[in-house]
Amino acid sequence: MGSGVFAKLGSAITVKTAAVAAAGALVVSGAVGAGVWALGGGPHLAVVQRSVSVPVAAGGEQSAVAACLPHEKALGGGYAVTGTGFATSSLFAGDAWLVAAYNPDAAPATLTSYALCVNAKPEFLGGGTWSEQAHAFHDRGNKMTSASGGGTIHDLTTDGPFVGAAKHASASPSCPGEFTSLGTEFRSGRSVAGRGVAPVPLDSLTTKSAYSDAAKAVPYVTLNPGSRLSSGTFPLRSSEFITHQTRIEDPQPPEANYAVSVRPICVRLSSVSVATVKVAVSAGGSADAAVSCPKGKLVVGGGFQFPAANETGTSEAPTRFFGDGWLYAPADAPAAGEPSGHKVTAWHVTGRNQQKAGLDYFNSVWVEHSDRETLTGNGYFDTHRRGPDDQELHVSPVPDSQELVASAVCATIDAKATEPAKAPSPPAVTRPELPHALDPKPGPTDGTGSTPPSSSPSAPASGASPTTSPSASPGTSATPGSPNGPGTPTRGGPSRPGTPSQSGSPTRQQPQAPAVTIQQPSGGGQLRRGCEESFAATARTRPGDQPLTDPQYTTWRINGPNGPVTLGAGAAGRFLVPLLPDGTYKLVFTATDPASGLSGSAETSVRIVGCLR
């Protein structure tokens, strides 16, 4: 082999690679960003992942940015979470990919952000706007608001703040003309202004082939439901169609107020197809899936979906509500653990199923104090009977497993391969201001009761060039508290509040769970079954030492033999004691700080006895 061949391979040649080149094989450069070369030719098209990992503190939120090299173009990106947690935002930051994740657990987690980078300049559709929202608030699609025998069911879906929100449980933004969606950007927001919000994971972030055009991919985004059905009774004259006469609990948990805005990634591509793989994820377990593309096509995007087929189809099919368990995929990216710059050959998804096999869905419907002849009484939604004469109308158990569908978008790119400059300057990304998933301060509404997430003017649009800094290294995340760190104002744009996992002003105290105590009943006190009893507690924020008394941020529960039973809400009040057998139970009072989303609880043991009327 002559010296001319070595000159084409450039600085990538070592003693080992020279031997491989002499054998006539392809040589992949060991230098980061040097591209893929063949003997006697120039660079070949390839999609590689550029990644960066950051820790996510317990109960906190963190973001990470992975940047492409100057000669590359970001096609999109993905994320992976090691440990607990899930993404709350995933979007472009110039030719880089920004991801924010929330960790609800007490143990730390790790977030990895991936950018899918191609050494070419394919045509993107610019000027895309954040359009549709997917809401966490859910209710039955076939709900009846007129009660059997006359009357109307009044709740949050008829005349409350969430009217209409249940109709926007999913979003499917589309790309026009000859452009194909490689995936979807999303960022966190809220459904209703002025109410507390807490993030929930995505159920679906996938790209499907359109029925009318098999080569046209269509994105589809859904959130895990945040709604909770009421466990209180409501009178009815007939139990006919009771499964369609749902009643929503008020106040709803802050998770029900969570929403995301979405935007499709539209690129002009050829020979587009979507490859899928299905795996069963056992209740309480997790499973991995990997999807590869046919030979000759590149992996240009991907996604996942938990279809939960048992919840669709017939009108009697159950609907998953908050408390029924979470199905979500903490990873949606190339294989975790691969070094940055690795060629993408498959799309990887890790699905996690937090449902409990054999338990009933929370939307089981019962009629209290009735019989099968008259079908009259009071209807309520719960997982178990409250008395021996309760009539079971609708129960559907959680299955032993649910199917996870992993998808990869496969295509060819009609563009000339680019190569790096001889002396490229290391790229860096100025992290845009990201909407904070736990920030309770609402933004301006659009007049429909829905508040789209706000975006800082400093956030670069899709396809824009990131701001560079000579001090940053490629594929690294800005240090919290530094000029490029999260929580730091970008010049010319507003700042967002720091999160529990971020550094802030030296005088600013980190948020903590509220300080909570139960005053009444005292430990070991008696509660009379079926009677109203007095309850009182205190909850104060930390820092700030402000009282939390709003019912939408406070709940009382008794841990019964078949799970928790909600008594009521508010720091103090008189609540009906549930019809539980005589015995000792744990009473729990929980308060959530709307400013941080952190919750604190206090508990005491009480004894339930018969009620003397």
Could you characterize what this model shows?
It is elongated, with a radius of gyration of 27 Å. With 613 residues, it is mostly beta strands. The strands form eight sheets. It has a seven-stranded antiparallel beta sheet, with no helix packed on it. A six-stranded antiparallel beta sheet has the order 11-14-13-19-26-17, with no helix packed on it. The chain has a five-stranded mixed beta sheet with strand order 28-34-33-30-31, with no helix packed on it. 2% of the residues lie in helices and 38% in strands. It is built from two helices and 34 strands. The relative contact order is 0.14. β33 (583-592) and β34 form a beta hairpin. Mean pLDDT is 75; it is low at 1-40, 211-215, 426-433 and 439-508.
Number of helices, where a helix is a run of at least 4 consecutive DSSP H or I residues? 2
What shape does the CA trace take?
A: elongated
Low-confidence stretches: 1-40, 211-215, 426-433, 439-508
Percentage beta strand: 35-45%
Q: Using only CA atoms, what is the Rg?
A: 27 Å
Main beta sheet: 7 strands, antiparallel
Distance between the termini: 101 Å
Mean pLDDT: 75
Biggest sheet, spatial arrangement of strands: 18-22-20-6-9-4-21
Number of E-state strands:
34
Helix content: under 10%
Q: What structural class do helix, strand and pairing data support?
A: mainly beta
